[in-house]
Amino acid sequence: MESTYIIGEIGQNHNGSMELAMQIIDFIAEPVVDKLFGEYLKPMDAVKFTKRDLAEELSDSEMKRPYTGPHSFGKTYGEHRSFLELDDEQHFELYKYAKGKGLDFVETLCARGCLSMFRYFEPDRLKVASRDLTNLPLLAAMAETKIPMILSTGMGGKQELDKALEVITAYHSNIAILHCLSQYPSEYKNINLNTIPYLISEYPDHTIGYSDHSIGIVVPVAAVALGAKIIEKHITLDRTMKGTDQQGSLGTEGVWRMVRDIRNVEKSMGEEGMFISESVSEAKVKLERSVASLRDIMKGETIMEEDLHMLSPGDGFKWDERGNITGKVTKQDIPKDEIIYKHMIK
Q1: Using DSSP, how many helices (H) and how many strands (E) does the chain show?
Q2: pLDDT per residue over 153-172, tens digit each?
Q3: What is the pLDDT of residues 316-326, one digit of tens each?
Q4: N or C: which terminus of the chain has fewer CB atoms within 10 Å of its end residue's CB?
Q5: How far apart are CA 270 and CA 64, in angstroms?
Q6: Are residues 264 and 282 in the same domain?
Q7: Are residues 30 and 153 in the same domain?
Q8: Does residue 284 share a domain with residue 254?
């Protein structure tokens, strides 16, 4: 199975801090070791940040709405959003920092005004948030850059997705589609992972993946087993930190476990077919059963089927090969409960 492209979504879990953003990048870039087998596994492939243009974000009344909850960074929702925004130059610094760590850099752009960052750099991929699947002017502006795009479908159905694809493919076809449920956190009963094989069947020209908002790691790992080639998951250094996305994100231990399990699922998928793996050869000899003596059989006796039963190890005749033994004369004494080998019979 080819390697799954795993995106660590930082979003705005940096809480407006460049230092915190870089610390999360450092963590995402750390090696992943399977402690059981002592293997170094491929770490995450990319980090993702979110860029908003507050002039194109919310209505004036919503921007002025009081926002005083425990996760607020300002007295109004507008002040809160402004506090969490990093400017184009800061995104450029994070881009250079992530690239220096060997990571791709993905940007969710929430408005056409966010394309101003292209004065400084071009992200490796552009992400369309679920809420903007129907924002066709934004999709056209992003597609015009010819940068590979990722569409999240958490708030849309097939009709909305097809319209979005129609707009983007007028410019290019390098598009990934992520099944998603925009419920935070997602209840397992609503996730419907069987959408993944459906998308693979319906959109064979595009890469299909999964953007996860569930708690834990089991759902993204299962998504990979169902064929998802991209996994996106919110990442934080501390799930108890202030911020609306922190609690629903993966912390440090969770990230290690998720990446480990995804990489091991990739290995375990193998190929379509049924065969005996060379890795079980030692266990096969040790544990399988062979034809053995049910009683003491003296030299010169003829062996009958009623003289036989099955015991380990498995390096002798199998039961369907007992015809190589029955009716044959022994060349030596064979004690009870011993494997009967070829050299023991005439």
Answers
A1: 11, 12
A2: 999 999 999 999 999 999 99
A3: 999 999 999 99
A4: C
A5: 55
A6: no
A7: yes
A8: no
